[in-house]
Amino acid sequence: MSLSHRLHVVVDPETAALLRRLARERHRTVGDLVREAIVAHYGTGDERRRVAEKALAEILAAHDTIPLPDPDDWSASYERIRASEPQ
User: Is the pLDDT of residue 28 over 80?
Assistant: First the structure.
């Protein structure tokens, strides 16, 4: 992973202390923890794309299992509804 963009994040003293303690305990840097938290919470572009593709595949697969009325039936229903509406 190429780290080419710098961010400046301001946190309260308690959060800063917590991040320093966790980083020390895990033998990591605070930056590592923040990057991991961002990916865990927001994902990466590739992960979001995979999630969206999976959701779309599930929707398309469900389409085959959901019985849909014939379009001609839709037209007949629509015409009945329109005929019953007050003019």
Answer: yes
